[in-house]
TrEMBL record:
The chain crosses the membrane at residues 26-46, 52-73, 80-101, 107-130, 142-163, 175-194, 224-244, 256-274, 281-298, 304-324. One of its GO terms (molecular function) is transmembrane transporter activity. It comes from Promicromonospora citrea. It holds the Pfam family BPD_transp_2. One of its GO terms (cellular component) is plasma membrane. This is Autoinducer 2 import system permease protein LsrD.
């Protein structure tokens, strides 16, 4: 009987600095840094303080929605109804304003409505067993139809300056908008939820293997329901911000925003098949899309071209990990079998 060989667990086979730095998330942050430097050097006006202000204001709704979307995608599901929930929340906020409600009351009711929309999606996915792609495409049309039906082609405007100025005000004399504090707080909350709680571990376990998670005691259905409720509620909060940011409540607000959200999440290293993801990568993905969009707009590029760029990035973020995984499989198949030095080197290269 041969002596047992000590083979490291793949996740911890590499040195800690390699596990921390040689990741998809760090690659996204590196690309973000390069994009910022190149844009500052080549795009006129990009390096001014106004860039930071408008960049944060523009990415705020995308980042808000991307936070719960990260957890949803990490389970292997997806929520494509988020932009229509933004529109429905915007309309609800505007109609409540017309009825005489204050900003906090209108915002609370709008967020609660978003949570209900998310609960409908979650119940159909978790308890009825329907695929999330089909469910949320259907609810995308349903919620958008409700939003447009309530207001038609009109818009609610005339919000008090105190409301709209609060959504775009800066912190003192700095270029950082007040919404930065809200974003930082929510990023911290969702990062702790995903990376430092049993709930976050359950989310990743569901993405790796739903059956294994169920047998290990994870309440898969309840977890999915909670995630979709969070997605709906935070999307509605983004709808309130969107309304005050632009001073207009419309049924078609944020149309197509789900493309940017999903692209940011996947660019940030979250696997579309579930089981892996990190919040710092998603934040980097949101900022990367924001920087590209800001630079292209300053260069006079149209929205359609910007959408093409974002769509291309989305396709690349899905295809690249699959190609890399296929190459790793082929390399392993071509490597010598057994427990010799070659096998040990192969194991050490499987950090992720």
């Amino acid at each position: 009987m041969s002596a047992p060989t000590n083979r490291p667990v793949p996740t911890h086979a590499r040195p800690w600095w390699q596990r921390a730095l040689l990741t998809r998330e760090m690659l996204t942050l590196a690309i973000l840094a390069v994009a910022w430097v190149v844009a500052s050097a080549t795009v006129r006006g990009f390096d001014g303080p106004l860039t930071i202000t408008y960049l944060v204001l523009d990415i705020a709704p995308v980042l808000l929605i991307a936070l719960p979307m990260t957890l949803v995608v990490a389970t292997g599901e997806i929520d494509l109804s988020v932009a229509s929930v933004v529109g429905l929340s915007s309309v609800t906020f505007g109609l409540l304003f017309q009825a005489g409600a204050g900003p906090w009351q209108a915002a609370l009711v709008s967020v609660l409505l978003g949570a209900v929309c998310g609960a409908v999606n979650g119940a159909l996915v978790a308890y009825a067993g329907l695929p999330s792609l089909a469910v949320t495409i259907g609810s995308l049309a349903l919620y958008r139809g409700l939003a447009v039906g309530l207001l038609g082609t009109t818009a609610v405007t005339g919000f008090p300056d105190a409301w709209t100025d609060g959504a775009t005000a800066n912190l003192g004399g700095s270029p950082w908008p007040v919404i930065t504090l809200v974003l930082a707080a929510l990023v911290a909350v969702f990062a702790l939820l995903l990376h430092a709680t049993p709930f976050g571990r359950d989310v990743l376990d569901i993405g790796r293997s739903r059956e294994a998670a169920r047998f290990s005691g994870v309440d898969v259905r309840r977890t999915l329901l909670v995630l979709f409720v969070l997605s709906g509620a935070v999307s509605a909060l983004a709808g309130v911000y969107y309304t005050l940011r632009y001073g207009s409540a419309r049924g078609d607000n944020a149309t197509g925003l789900e493309l940017q959200v999903v692209a940011a999440v996947l660019l940030g290293g979250v696997s579309i098949f579930g089981g892996r993801g990190a919040l710092h990568g998603v934040v980097g993905g949101v900022l990367l899309i924001g920087v590209l969009g800001s630079a292209l707009r300053l260069e006079g590029v149209t929205v359609n071209v910007i959408n093409i760029v974002i769509g291309t990035a989305l396709v690349v973020s899905v295809v690249a990990p699959r190609v890399a995984g296929g190459l790793r499989v082929r390399r392993r198949a071509a490597a010598p079998a057994g427990g010799g030095p070659a096998a040990g080197r192969r194991t050490e290269g499987d950090g992720r």
